[in-house]
């Protein structure tokens, strides 16, 4: 009993003493010593000594909260240069009176020039750094400095980075082919054998004069507007080209990322008809008995509504709707065909056919994975599409056919 009591006392003493020697918050930084970074722009510098030029969009908390405002810009931009990303970050800290806090970054914008040279080094930093998060959205600045995106004042949000996030969410629901692409998605894309990621593009539409001041928000028509644009297609970690129109829509369909998009077709003798494709389900299968010559079958089914029919078509007739469906099917097949042919031209399987091949025939995949880009570029594919017109919104026929 005495030995048991001694052990109990010793255990209690250890539990009381150990917390005294542990520094629970040894690396803590007080909130009033932090500068919250909402967005980062990455540009190419001059020479290797200043390879990376990082611009940090820092939130000015007093201007956002509405208390103790001074009438200045709600964000500030600080820039650092260095041979590596970490060195550029360290150099940027020389300009700020607070520690740059990277845990709230919502947007990362990379210039087209940097993307053409390769982005794997910077992705390693983003994945390794404990302060950053893998859910930040990534964009490629097309033909412009990424810094310009981060220094453009916007109307609907005081913080430009937040405005860009909201625009992406809006366009993904209404227009179609732009969808969320996070840091983790890009890293996974780079690891695809013979493939690469697809990243949203962004540009400044309009004049840059005064775009970085509050004057850009004081006119009915802003001088400059941040605009989500085409898709940047990669091979490994290098930008290969830009996807737009049918090619971009087909690529988004192949990734099953479409929430809705407008489809416009010409009906013989009746002009154009506009549809809203509000649901798409796509599946890719492969016949891979011969791994060197796989045949991919793309099967897609869609549900559609008629949004605009300014003609004399009788939309109450099932026969009319049945005649419209083949035109929609061909339109969808054209988009998917354009996407696959473009990927084959780039010899980059960013549409993910290799993953389908690996799941279907693991042993065959091992034989072709080292030269998959060549197999993919020569592969055969078939498209099986189906479209059903569910409704015509709140009216059937156009008023134009009424007497």
Overall morphology: globular
Strand content: 25-35%
Low-confidence stretches: none
Radius of gyration: 27 Å
Question: Separation of termini?
Answer: 105 Å
Assembly of the depicted chains: single chain
Mean pLDDT: 86
Task: Please give the share of residues in helix.
Answer: 25-40%
Work out the count of structural domains.
Answer: 2
Q: What series of H and E elements makes up the topology?
A: HEEHEHEEHHEHHHEEEHEEEHHHHE
Biggest pleated-sheet summary: 9 strands, mixed
Classify the secondary structure makeup into a structural class.
alpha/beta
Strand tally is 13
Helix count from the secondary structure assignment: 13
Main location: membrane
Keywords: Germination, Lipoprotein, Membrane, Palmitate, Signal
Membrane topology: Lipid-anchor
Domain Spore germination protein N-terminal: 27-200
Short description:
It is a lipid-anchor. The protein is of the alpha/beta class.
What would you note in describing this structure?
It comes from Paenibacillus typhae. With 403 residues, the protein is α/β, with parallel strands linked by helices. It has two domains: 31-243, no CATH class; 244-403, Nutrient germinant receptor protein C, domain 3 (GMP Synthetase, Chain A, domain 3, 2-Layer Sandwich). 34% of the residues lie in helices and 29% in strands. The protein contains 13 helices and 13 strands. It has helices at 2-21, 61-65, 85-92, 112-117, 120-128, 146-150, 160-174, 183-190, 245-254, 318-346, 353-360, 362-368, 372-378; strands at 34-44, 52-59, 75-82, 99-101, 107-111, 137-141, 198-206, 224-235, 238-243, 261-267, 271-287, 295-308, 380-391. Helix 5 crosses helix 8 (183-190), helix 10 (318-346) packs antiparallel against helix 13 (372-378) and helix 11 (353-360) packs across helix 12 (362-368). The N and C termini lie far apart (105 Å). 36% of the residues are buried. The mean pLDDT is 86.
């Amino acid at each position: 009993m005495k030995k048991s009591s001694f052990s109990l006392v010793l255990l209690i003493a250890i539990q009381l003493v150990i917390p005294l020697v542990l520094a629970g918050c040894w690396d803590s930084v007080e909130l009033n010593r932090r500068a919250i970074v909402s967005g980062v722009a990455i540009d190419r510098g001059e020479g290797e000594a200043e390879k990376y030029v990082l611009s940090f969009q820092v939130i000015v908390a007093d201007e956002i909260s509405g208390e103790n405002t001074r009438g200045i810009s709600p964000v500030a931009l600080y820039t650092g240069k260095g041979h590596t990303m970490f060195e550029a970050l360290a150099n940027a800290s020389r300009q700020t009176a607070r520690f740059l806090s990277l845990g709230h970054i919502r947007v990362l914008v990379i210039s087209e020039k940097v993307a053409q040279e390769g982005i794997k080094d910077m992705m390693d930093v983003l994945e390794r750094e404990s302060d950053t998060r893998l859910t930040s959205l990534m964009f490629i600045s097309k033909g412009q400095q990424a810094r310009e995106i981060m220094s453009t004042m916007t109307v609907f949000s005081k913080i430009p980075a937040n405005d860009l996030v909201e625009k992406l969410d809006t366009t993904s629901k209404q227009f179609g082919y732009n969808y969320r692409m996070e840091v983790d998605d890009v890293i996974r894309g780079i690891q695809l054998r013979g493939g690469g990621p697809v990243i949203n593009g962004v540009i400044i539409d309009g004049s840059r004069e005064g775009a970085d001041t509050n004057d850009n928000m004081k006119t009915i028509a802003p001088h400059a507007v941040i605009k989500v644009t085409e898709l940047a297609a990669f091979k490994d970690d290098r930008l290969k080209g830009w996807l737009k129109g049918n090619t971009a829509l087909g690529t988004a369909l192949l990734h099953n990322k479409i929430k809705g998009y407008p489809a416009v077709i010409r009906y013989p003798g009746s002009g154009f008809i506009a549809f809203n494709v509000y649901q798409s389900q796509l599946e890719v299968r492969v016949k891979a008995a011969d791994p060197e010559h796989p045949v991919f079958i793309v099967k897609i089914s869609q549900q559609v509504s008629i949004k605009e029919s300014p003609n004399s078509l009788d939309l109450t007739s099932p026969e009319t709707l049945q005649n419209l469906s083949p035109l929609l099917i061909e339109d969808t097949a054209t988009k998917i065909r354009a996407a696959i042919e473009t990927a084959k031209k780039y010899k980059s399987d960013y549409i993910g056919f290799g993953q389908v091949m690996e799941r279907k025939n693991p042993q065959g995949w091992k034989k072709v994975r080292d030269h998959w880009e060549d197999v993919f570029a020569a592969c055969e594919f078939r498209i099986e599409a189906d479209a059903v017109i569910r409704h015509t919104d709140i009216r059937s026929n156009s008023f134009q056919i009424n007497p």
